[in-house]
Every structure is written in C-alpha cells, then in structure tokens.
Specification:
The protein has 390 residues and is an alpha/beta fold. Helices cover 37% and strands 14% of the residues. Strands 1, 2, 3, 4, 5, 6, 7, 10 and 11 form a 9-stranded mixed beta sheet that branches. The chain has a two-stranded antiparallel sheet with strand order 8-9. Strand 3, helix 4 (102-108) and strand 4 (112-115) form a beta-alpha-beta unit. The chain starts with a helix and ends with a helix.
Length: 390
C-alpha cells in the first residue's frame, strides 16, 4: 500500500494542470459513502444488525432483505451470507453497479442477503469492554474469525430468519468457512451449502507481495481505512490515464486484468479497498506461508509456554478438512496471485463433499468480486445451484 501511495503522488506531481483537467472524470458518489449509504443510494432496502461474539466483539451485519422490485412474494426467500476477504468489508459485494454486484444481483433475484464484517474492519470495531486503541483488542487472527465471528453471525441469522443459510465466501471468507465448518459440527447443521470464490486454505505457492510484508507490522491494527484512501480516489485516481495506473498499482497486490474491470470504478475500489485487520492476523498468514509442512495451523504464540496455555500442547494444532460435510462448490482463477492454482490443486482433494469446481483461466483474485464477467461466469451459477437446493 505504501508504494501505491508514493507512486500515486509522484504520478500526480508529474502531470500538468492542463492535462489533468482534460482527462479528469467525475468522482463516483460511492467513493465517499459508507456501506449502508451505498445500499440506500441504489434504492435498496437496508437493515443493520449488531452481533456479539462469545468473546465480546461486536460485529455489524448489513442486510438487504429484498430487491428493488420489492419482491416480497409468498413463501420464504433463500437466506445467503456473504463473507468478504482479507482487508475488506461488506462494501466488496456492492462496489460495482447493481447489475454487476453480487449482493444486489442476489437481492433482485429474490434472496434475503446478509453481509458479514469480520472483527477489526471499519464496520466491526466495537467490543463490550476493550478499547480498539488497546493492544488486547487486536490480539486476534483468522482463528477467532472462524471460531467466534462466523458462528455468531450464522446463529444470529438463523434465529432471525428461521432458515438455514447458504454461505458465500471470498478469499479469507473461504478460509474461515473451511476452518469453522471442519471444526464446529453444530455449525454445519445450519448451513445448506458453501460457495467458495478464490478459495484459500494453504498458501505455500502464494505470489502476492502483501502477505510478505509482515516484518513491518506493529501489534495493533494494520492497513485500516483512512482519509488517504479518499484523497487518492478523489484527487488522483479520478483521471482517465492516472486512474488506470492507480488500478495497476493497487491490483498488483492480487493480480491485474483490466479487460475484466470497469475502469471507471477504480476510484471506488481504491476508496474502499483497505478496511483494516489486525497485525496478528497478517502474522498468522505469514506463519502459514512459511510452514515447511505446507499445513494450516492455529496461530503460533511463539513459545512452548504460550502455546501450552492456549492449546494445551506445545505446538499449534493443525487444521484438516476431513470432517467437513458441508456441500462445497469452488470457483478459482488461473491468474490468482493469492489463491494460487497450485494451492487450489492441493486443496481440492481434501474437500470431502465437493459438488462443483470451475477454473476461470483469465481470473485474478479480485475478479470474483469486481469482474465485469463475474455475473455470467460465477454469480448466475450460484443462483441456479441455490434454486435447485431443497
């Protein structure tokens, strides 16, 4: 991110005022809006719900109960939970136009859409007792998201709707799904199916640079949403030429394929692209990347004593998928620098109840949420699968 900021500012400094004015384009209104404001901007119904986890973190769920056609027809609407990836939030599902954003497409297709927000991002910064400025607040990783956040969110939705859910995850959203569904059998009873976009479990072959910068971490939050994102989006990346360069720099963290992107939305992606997480979460990814056995384990606290205190064993326990019984469908990309094809090929045979796997040869990591072709290539298939589920 830091190289993105520096490069963007250098690019702006090099441009003349005349060229800048000629190439400047209007800022998309969503750049300065929150997730709830974006939903309302597009005239969708909205509900905000707060969920308290077993360890007292307070999460926000965004709900779009029905589409713009006010499709409140008779019978129950299928319930879907969308869970974002690393450093993201619910905004990732609504960043494109309504005909290209998964949450809006599902709502218009007659589904009851819920969007989760993992602890530590812009919309889930509360805790019953801890201050978010304290080191204790940020002592979590994807372990806690799987053990506490996802069960709390699913339990709340099931109680509210009286239905089992369909779960859609992207990137980290798939990881916490794999961990939760393989270790919490009582949770599995509340999930009809798992739809994994850019699936992540082991990351031995990861090529993205973002996970490798853990040496720069502190002990609290990491890459939260700041005013800098908004400034870049509104004053630098809203230029026809510089906007493309912004996109290349920003998406270089995950893979960049401009042919499948609405480049007029780059300012929206940049503005909402970094929603924050904990430094410990990034360190956990780094531990997974460097594991010589290529396995995914719980967070390593660094000493035998600390691990014994947390796990009653000297090394962190290993996660396995052998007991995961949720019907699972995968969509992966050949150009994905995070969910690398080699890692996906290792993951696939470990899933006991794999019902579908599609490889998209031109897809990068973010094409699954921002790609222009995602509705045709992925979303319509999810909708058809859900409709056929008893």
């Amino acid at each position: 991110m830091w190289r993105f900021v520096i490069a963007a500012l250098m690019i702006q400094a090099l441009g003349t005022e005349c060229i800048s004015r000629f190439l400047k384009r209007p800022v998309n209104p969503e750049v300065l809006l929150s997730a709830s404001q974006i939903i309302r901007y597009w005239k969708y119904s909205l509900e905000e719900h707060e969920v308290v986890t077993a360890d007292s973190y307070i999460l926000t769920l965004h709900r779009i109960p029905y589409g713009r056609a006010d499709n409140k027809g008779p019978g129950q609407r299928p319930v879907i939970l969308l869970q974002h990836g690393l450093l993201s939030s619910a905004v990732s599902w609504i960043s494109n136009l309504p005909n290209n954003s998964l949450a809006f497409i599902l709502a218009d297709a007659g589904f009851d859409v819920w969007m989760g927000n993992s602890r530590g991002n812009t919309y889930s910064l509360k805790h019953a007792t801890l201050s978010r400025y304290s080191k204790e607040y940020w002592a979590f990783s994807f372990d806690e998201m799987a053990i506490y956040d996802l069960p709390a969110s699913i339990d709340y939705i099931v109680k509210k709707t009286g239905q089992k859910i369909h779960y859609v995850g992207h990137s980290q959203g798939t990881l916490i799904g794999f961990l939760a569904f393989s270790t919490l059998p009582e949770l599995v009873q509340k999930v009809k199916a798992f739809y994994a976009l850019a699936p992540v479990f082991s990351i031995q072959y990861l090529r993205a640079v973002l996970i490798r910068i853990y040496l720069l971490l502190g002990n609290k939050d990491f890459l939260p949403e700041t005013v800098i994102n908004k400034v870049l989006a509104t004053t630098v990346c809203n230029n026809k030429i510089i906007g493309t360069i912004c996109g290349k720099i920003f998406f270089s963290l995950f893979g960049f394929e401009p042919k499948n992107l609405n480049t007029s939305r780059i300012d929206v992606y940049v503005s909402h692209g970094l929603q924050g997480t904990s430094s410990q979460n990034f360190l956990h990814y780094a531990q997974t990347f460097h594991d010589i056995r290529n396995v995914t384990r719980a967070y390593d606290y660094g000493t035998r004593k600390e691990n014994l205190a947390h796990y009653n064993q000297s090394t962190p326990p290993r996660y396995t998928l052998s007991s995961m019984r949720v019907p699972t469908a995968l969509w992966s990309g050949k150009q994905d620098l995070v969910a690398d094809p080699e890692d996906v090929s290792i993951l696939v045979p470990q899933i006991p109840n794999l019902i579908y796997h599609k490889t998209l040869h031109t897809y990068t990591h973010l094409d699954f949420i921002f790609g222009l072709n995602a509705p045709q290539d992925v979303y319509n298939e999810i909708i058809e699968m859900i409709k056929k589920t008893p």
